[in-house]
Amino acid sequence: MTASRTATAVAHSNIALSKYWGKLPVEGNYPAVPSLSVTLGAMSTTTTVRFDPSLAEDTLVLNGEALGGATRPTQRASELLERVRRASGVTDFASVHSANDFPTASGLASSASGFAALALAAVTAAGLDWSLDRVADLARRSSASAARSIFGGFVALEDGVATPVAPPSALAMRVLVCVTTEAAKTTSSTDGMRHTQDASPYYAAWLQDAPKAHAQLRAALAQGDWPRLGQIAERSALAMHACAMAAGVVYMTGATLAALAEVRTMRSQGILAYATIDAGPHLKCLVREADAEQARARLAQVAGVIRVLESAPGQGARIVPGL
Ligand code: PMV
Prior knowledge:
Blueprint: E1 6-18, E2 35-52, E3 59-62, E4 65-67, H1 72-88, E5 93-100, H2 110-125, H3 132-142, H4 144-149, E6 154-158, E7 161-166, E8 173-179, H5 189-199, H6 203-223, H7 226-245, H8 254-268, E9 274-277, E10 283-288, H9 292-300, E11 307-311, E12 318-319
Parallel strand pairs: 3-5
Antiparallel strand pairs: 1-2, 1-12, 2-5, 2-6, 3-4, 6-7, 8-10, 8-11, 9-10
The structure holds (3R)-3-hydroxy-3-methyl-5-(phosphonooxy)pentanoic acid (PMV).
Protein backbone atom coordinates (compact mmCIF):
# COMPACT_ATOMS: atom_id res chain seq x y z
CA MET A 1 0.00 0.00 0.00
CA THR A 2 1.25 3.48 -0.80
CA ALA A 3 0.50 6.21 1.71
CA SER A 4 -1.76 8.28 -0.51
CA ARG A 5 -3.30 7.12 -3.74
CA THR A 6 -4.16 10.59 -4.95
CA ALA A 7 -2.90 12.85 -7.73
CA THR A 8 -3.94 16.04 -9.49
CA ALA A 9 -3.27 16.70 -13.17
CA VAL A 10 -3.92 19.62 -15.47
CA ALA A 11 -4.42 19.23 -19.22
CA HIS A 12 -5.30 21.70 -21.93
CA SER A 13 -7.89 21.51 -24.61
CA ASN A 14 -6.81 21.25 -28.22
CA ILE A 15 -8.23 22.20 -31.59
CA ALA A 16 -7.64 20.04 -34.64
CA LEU A 17 -6.23 21.83 -37.68
CA SER A 18 -6.64 18.69 -39.78
CA LYS A 19 -9.73 16.98 -38.39
CA TYR A 20 -10.54 13.42 -37.65
CA TRP A 21 -14.16 12.34 -38.00
CA GLY A 22 -15.22 8.68 -37.93
CA LYS A 23 -13.84 5.57 -36.26
CA LEU A 24 -12.25 2.41 -37.60
CA PRO A 25 -14.58 -0.60 -37.39
CA VAL A 26 -12.39 -2.29 -34.74
CA GLU A 27 -12.28 -2.39 -30.93
CA GLY A 28 -10.25 0.27 -29.12
CA ASN A 29 -11.60 3.61 -30.37
CA TYR A 30 -9.25 4.20 -33.30
CA PRO A 31 -9.89 7.24 -35.55
CA ALA A 32 -10.57 6.45 -39.21
CA VAL A 33 -8.28 9.25 -40.42
CA PRO A 34 -5.18 11.05 -39.09
CA SER A 35 -5.38 14.49 -37.48
CA LEU A 36 -3.14 17.29 -36.25
CA SER A 37 -3.99 19.71 -33.45
CA VAL A 38 -2.66 22.63 -31.53
CA THR A 39 -2.89 22.45 -27.74
CA LEU A 40 -4.66 25.51 -26.30
CA GLY A 41 -2.76 27.08 -23.41
CA ALA A 42 -5.66 29.20 -22.17
CA MET A 43 -8.25 26.41 -21.77
CA SER A 44 -7.64 23.75 -19.18
CA THR A 45 -9.15 21.03 -17.03
CA THR A 46 -7.80 20.26 -13.56
CA THR A 47 -8.63 16.80 -12.21
CA THR A 48 -7.92 15.08 -8.89
CA VAL A 49 -8.22 11.30 -8.58
CA ARG A 50 -8.22 9.59 -5.21
CA PHE A 51 -8.45 5.82 -4.90
CA ASP A 52 -10.32 5.35 -1.63
CA PRO A 53 -11.08 2.03 0.14
CA SER A 54 -14.21 3.50 1.72
CA LEU A 55 -16.00 4.05 -1.62
CA ALA A 56 -18.63 1.61 -2.94
CA GLU A 57 -18.41 2.98 -6.51
CA ASP A 58 -16.50 5.54 -8.56
CA THR A 59 -17.78 9.08 -8.06
CA LEU A 60 -17.45 12.16 -10.26
CA VAL A 61 -17.80 15.82 -9.36
CA LEU A 62 -17.70 17.95 -12.51
CA ASN A 63 -17.46 21.72 -12.14
CA GLY A 64 -18.72 21.43 -8.54
CA GLU A 65 -21.73 19.24 -9.39
CA ALA A 66 -21.87 15.64 -8.15
CA LEU A 67 -22.99 13.50 -11.11
CA GLY A 68 -24.80 10.25 -10.37
CA GLY A 69 -23.16 6.87 -10.92
CA ALA A 70 -25.55 6.09 -13.78
CA THR A 71 -24.73 9.22 -15.79
CA ARG A 72 -22.72 8.94 -19.01
CA PRO A 73 -19.76 11.09 -17.83
CA THR A 74 -19.40 9.01 -14.64
CA GLN A 75 -19.59 5.76 -16.62
CA ARG A 76 -16.97 6.96 -19.10
CA ALA A 77 -14.66 8.03 -16.27
CA SER A 78 -15.24 4.68 -14.57
CA GLU A 79 -14.27 2.77 -17.74
CA LEU A 80 -10.92 4.57 -17.78
CA LEU A 81 -10.42 3.99 -14.03
CA GLU A 82 -11.18 0.29 -14.53
CA ARG A 83 -8.37 0.04 -17.10
CA VAL A 84 -6.03 1.67 -14.58
CA ARG A 85 -7.15 -0.70 -11.82
CA ARG A 86 -6.53 -3.71 -14.07
CA ALA A 87 -3.03 -2.46 -15.01
CA SER A 88 -1.98 -1.48 -11.48
CA GLY A 89 -3.61 -4.04 -9.21
CA VAL A 90 -5.30 -1.25 -7.25
CA THR A 91 -8.79 -2.47 -6.36
CA ASP A 92 -10.31 0.61 -4.68
CA PHE A 93 -12.93 2.77 -6.32
CA ALA A 94 -11.98 6.38 -6.92
CA SER A 95 -13.38 9.84 -6.39
CA VAL A 96 -12.77 12.19 -9.31
CA HIS A 97 -13.02 15.98 -8.98
CA SER A 98 -12.73 17.78 -12.29
CA ALA A 99 -13.15 21.44 -13.23
CA ASN A 100 -12.93 23.19 -16.58
CA ASP A 101 -12.16 26.86 -17.00
CA PHE A 102 -14.36 26.98 -20.15
CA PRO A 103 -17.91 25.81 -21.11
CA THR A 104 -18.29 22.03 -20.89
CA ALA A 105 -19.53 19.73 -23.69
CA SER A 106 -20.36 22.41 -26.23
CA GLY A 107 -17.71 21.69 -28.83
CA LEU A 108 -14.85 23.30 -26.93
CA ALA A 109 -13.25 19.85 -26.74
CA SER A 110 -13.72 19.46 -23.00
CA SER A 111 -13.58 15.69 -23.47
CA ALA A 112 -10.03 16.11 -24.79
CA SER A 113 -8.66 18.01 -21.82
CA GLY A 114 -10.94 16.08 -19.45
CA PHE A 115 -9.80 12.59 -20.40
CA ALA A 116 -6.17 13.69 -20.76
CA ALA A 117 -6.18 15.08 -17.20
CA LEU A 118 -8.11 12.07 -15.88
CA ALA A 119 -5.73 9.58 -17.52
CA LEU A 120 -2.61 11.27 -16.16
CA ALA A 121 -4.06 11.77 -12.66
CA ALA A 122 -5.42 8.20 -12.44
CA VAL A 123 -2.19 6.56 -13.66
CA THR A 124 -0.15 8.64 -11.21
CA ALA A 125 -2.52 8.08 -8.29
CA ALA A 126 -2.35 4.33 -8.92
CA GLY A 127 1.44 4.46 -8.72
CA LEU A 128 2.06 3.40 -12.34
CA ASP A 129 5.30 4.65 -13.84
CA TRP A 130 4.05 5.03 -17.42
CA SER A 131 5.53 7.00 -20.32
CA LEU A 132 3.41 9.82 -21.71
CA ASP A 133 2.93 7.71 -24.85
CA ARG A 134 1.23 5.06 -22.76
CA VAL A 135 -0.89 7.64 -20.93
CA ALA A 136 -1.92 9.07 -24.31
CA ASP A 137 -2.96 5.61 -25.48
CA LEU A 138 -5.11 5.21 -22.36
CA ALA A 139 -6.71 8.63 -22.93
CA ARG A 140 -7.36 7.80 -26.61
CA ARG A 141 -9.50 4.81 -25.66
CA SER A 142 -11.95 7.20 -23.94
CA SER A 143 -11.78 10.11 -26.41
CA ALA A 144 -9.45 10.00 -29.40
CA SER A 145 -8.79 13.74 -29.34
CA ALA A 146 -7.70 13.41 -25.67
CA ALA A 147 -4.55 11.57 -26.76
CA ARG A 148 -3.38 14.80 -28.43
CA SER A 149 -3.92 16.85 -25.25
CA ILE A 150 -1.26 14.81 -23.42
CA PHE A 151 1.33 16.73 -25.44
CA GLY A 152 2.00 20.42 -25.97
CA GLY A 153 2.35 22.48 -29.12
CA PHE A 154 1.39 20.82 -32.39
CA VAL A 155 0.42 17.16 -32.08
CA ALA A 156 -0.30 14.53 -34.75
CA LEU A 157 -2.59 11.55 -34.15
CA GLU A 158 -1.77 8.89 -36.73
CA ASP A 159 -2.79 5.21 -36.53
CA GLY A 160 -4.00 5.90 -33.01
CA VAL A 161 -0.61 7.18 -31.82
CA ALA A 162 -0.25 10.79 -30.64
CA THR A 163 3.12 12.42 -31.36
CA PRO A 164 4.24 16.00 -30.73
CA VAL A 165 5.53 17.33 -34.06
CA ALA A 166 6.40 20.96 -33.22
CA PRO A 167 6.78 22.92 -29.96
CA PRO A 168 4.34 25.68 -28.93
CA SER A 169 6.84 28.28 -30.17
CA ALA A 170 6.87 26.85 -33.72
CA LEU A 171 4.26 29.34 -34.94
CA ALA A 172 3.45 32.80 -33.57
CA MET A 173 -0.27 32.09 -33.84
CA ARG A 174 -3.36 32.64 -31.74
CA VAL A 175 -6.66 30.79 -31.62
CA LEU A 176 -9.69 33.04 -31.08
CA VAL A 177 -12.60 31.00 -29.76
CA CYS A 178 -15.91 32.67 -30.60
CA VAL A 179 -18.25 31.42 -27.86
CA THR A 180 -21.79 31.32 -29.28
CA THR A 181 -23.62 29.48 -26.47
CA GLU A 182 -22.96 28.35 -22.90
CA ALA A 183 -25.26 25.36 -23.37
CA ALA A 184 -24.18 21.74 -23.81
CA LYS A 185 -24.33 20.48 -27.37
CA THR A 186 -27.18 18.19 -28.36
CA THR A 187 -25.30 15.65 -30.51
CA SER A 188 -22.09 14.24 -29.01
CA SER A 189 -19.14 13.77 -31.33
CA THR A 190 -19.43 9.99 -30.87
CA ASP A 191 -23.09 9.98 -31.98
CA GLY A 192 -22.42 12.50 -34.76
CA MET A 193 -19.59 10.37 -36.15
CA ARG A 194 -21.62 7.17 -35.96
CA HIS A 195 -24.49 8.76 -37.78
CA THR A 196 -22.18 10.24 -40.42
CA GLN A 197 -20.56 6.85 -41.04
CA ASP A 198 -23.97 5.21 -41.36
CA ALA A 199 -25.79 7.84 -43.41
CA SER A 200 -23.51 10.31 -45.21
CA PRO A 201 -23.21 9.80 -48.97
CA TYR A 202 -19.88 11.64 -48.74
CA TYR A 203 -18.22 9.53 -46.03
CA ALA A 204 -16.14 7.52 -48.52
CA ALA A 205 -14.93 10.77 -50.12
CA TRP A 206 -14.00 12.10 -46.66
CA LEU A 207 -11.94 8.96 -45.92
CA GLN A 208 -10.04 9.53 -49.17
CA ASP A 209 -9.52 13.27 -48.78
CA ALA A 210 -8.73 13.71 -45.06
CA PRO A 211 -5.34 11.88 -45.06
CA LYS A 212 -4.22 14.04 -48.02
CA ALA A 213 -5.23 17.25 -46.26
CA HIS A 214 -3.44 16.02 -43.12
CA ALA A 215 -0.19 15.37 -45.03
CA GLN A 216 -0.40 18.80 -46.68
CA LEU A 217 -1.00 20.42 -43.31
CA ARG A 218 2.00 18.68 -41.75
CA ALA A 219 4.15 19.94 -44.64
CA ALA A 220 2.83 23.51 -44.29
CA LEU A 221 3.57 23.41 -40.55
CA ALA A 222 7.11 22.11 -41.14
CA GLN A 223 7.67 24.98 -43.60
CA GLY A 224 6.07 27.57 -41.32
CA ASP A 225 3.82 28.47 -44.27
CA TRP A 226 1.04 30.40 -42.52
CA PRO A 227 -1.41 31.09 -45.34
CA ARG A 228 -1.17 27.52 -46.58
CA LEU A 229 -1.64 26.06 -43.10
CA GLY A 230 -4.67 28.25 -42.53
CA GLN A 231 -6.22 27.44 -45.91
CA ILE A 232 -5.86 23.69 -45.38
CA ALA A 233 -7.22 23.91 -41.81
CA GLU A 234 -10.31 25.83 -42.95
CA ARG A 235 -10.89 23.40 -45.80
CA SER A 236 -10.50 20.38 -43.49
CA ALA A 237 -13.16 21.75 -41.12
CA LEU A 238 -15.58 22.57 -43.93
CA ALA A 239 -15.09 19.14 -45.51
CA MET A 240 -15.81 17.46 -42.17
CA HIS A 241 -18.97 19.49 -41.66
CA ALA A 242 -20.12 18.99 -45.26
CA CYS A 243 -19.79 15.24 -44.80
CA ALA A 244 -21.68 15.33 -41.46
CA MET A 245 -24.36 17.70 -42.76
CA ALA A 246 -25.12 15.38 -45.65
CA ALA A 247 -26.14 12.87 -42.97
CA GLY A 248 -28.30 15.48 -41.21
CA VAL A 249 -25.72 16.18 -38.47
CA VAL A 250 -25.55 19.97 -38.16
CA TYR A 251 -23.42 21.67 -35.51
CA MET A 252 -23.24 25.16 -37.04
CA THR A 253 -25.73 27.85 -36.13
CA GLY A 254 -26.39 31.27 -37.59
CA ALA A 255 -23.75 32.73 -35.27
CA THR A 256 -21.18 30.22 -36.52
CA LEU A 257 -21.86 31.23 -40.13
CA ALA A 258 -21.84 34.94 -39.29
CA ALA A 259 -18.41 34.52 -37.67
CA LEU A 260 -17.21 32.53 -40.71
CA ALA A 261 -18.34 35.37 -42.98
CA GLU A 262 -16.40 37.85 -40.84
CA VAL A 263 -13.25 35.71 -41.02
CA ARG A 264 -13.56 35.70 -44.80
CA THR A 265 -14.19 39.44 -44.94
CA MET A 266 -11.04 40.00 -42.88
CA ARG A 267 -9.13 37.84 -45.33
CA SER A 268 -10.37 39.84 -48.29
CA GLN A 269 -8.99 42.91 -46.51
CA GLY A 270 -5.54 41.39 -46.04
CA ILE A 271 -5.76 39.94 -42.50
CA LEU A 272 -4.65 36.31 -42.85
CA ALA A 273 -7.36 34.81 -40.60
CA TYR A 274 -8.80 31.31 -41.07
CA ALA A 275 -11.67 29.42 -39.50
CA THR A 276 -12.09 25.99 -37.97
CA ILE A 277 -15.14 24.44 -36.29
CA ASP A 278 -15.44 21.25 -34.21
CA ALA A 279 -18.52 19.29 -33.18
CA GLY A 280 -20.25 22.35 -31.80
CA PRO A 281 -21.36 25.85 -32.79
CA HIS A 282 -18.27 27.80 -31.72
CA LEU A 283 -16.03 29.05 -34.49
CA LYS A 284 -12.32 29.16 -33.82
CA CYS A 285 -10.39 31.76 -35.77
CA LEU A 286 -6.72 31.05 -36.48
CA VAL A 287 -4.61 34.20 -36.77
CA ARG A 288 -1.05 35.32 -36.52
CA GLU A 289 -0.15 36.84 -33.17
CA ALA A 290 0.31 40.29 -34.72
CA ASP A 291 -3.30 40.28 -36.04
CA ALA A 292 -4.93 38.79 -32.95
CA GLU A 293 -6.06 42.00 -31.25
CA GLN A 294 -7.70 43.42 -34.36
CA ALA A 295 -9.34 40.12 -35.31
CA ARG A 296 -10.60 39.62 -31.77
CA ALA A 297 -12.25 43.05 -31.69
CA ARG A 298 -13.97 42.38 -35.00
CA LEU A 299 -15.22 38.93 -34.05
CA ALA A 300 -16.59 40.29 -30.75
CA GLN A 301 -18.92 42.53 -32.82
CA VAL A 302 -20.47 39.62 -34.75
CA ALA A 303 -24.16 39.01 -33.96
CA GLY A 304 -24.50 35.90 -31.76
CA VAL A 305 -20.90 35.86 -30.55
CA ILE A 306 -21.12 36.09 -26.73
CA ARG A 307 -17.40 36.51 -26.08
CA VAL A 308 -14.07 35.70 -27.65
CA LEU A 309 -11.43 33.68 -25.79
CA GLU A 310 -7.85 33.98 -26.94
CA SER A 311 -5.29 31.23 -26.67
CA ALA A 312 -1.69 30.74 -27.64
CA PRO A 313 -0.27 27.26 -28.29
CA GLY A 314 0.15 25.62 -24.88
CA GLN A 315 1.93 22.90 -22.95
CA GLY A 316 1.09 19.25 -22.52
CA ALA A 317 -0.57 17.58 -19.54
CA ARG A 318 1.28 17.58 -16.25
CA ILE A 319 0.95 16.63 -12.61
CA VAL A 320 0.30 19.48 -10.18
CA PRO A 321 2.72 18.88 -7.33
CA GLY A 322 1.66 19.12 -3.71
CA LEU A 323 -2.11 18.94 -4.24
O1 PMV B 1 -12.45 12.30 -29.97
P1 PMV B 1 -13.64 13.17 -29.83
O2 PMV B 1 -14.86 12.41 -29.51
O3 PMV B 1 -13.37 14.30 -28.90
O4 PMV B 1 -13.95 13.81 -31.29
C1 PMV B 1 -13.25 14.89 -31.83
C2 PMV B 1 -13.79 15.30 -33.16
C3 PMV B 1 -13.36 16.66 -33.66
O5 PMV B 1 -13.08 17.51 -32.59
C4 PMV B 1 -14.50 17.26 -34.46
C5 PMV B 1 -12.17 16.57 -34.61
C6 PMV B 1 -10.81 16.39 -33.98
O6 PMV B 1 -9.92 15.86 -34.68
O7 PMV B 1 -10.62 16.79 -32.82
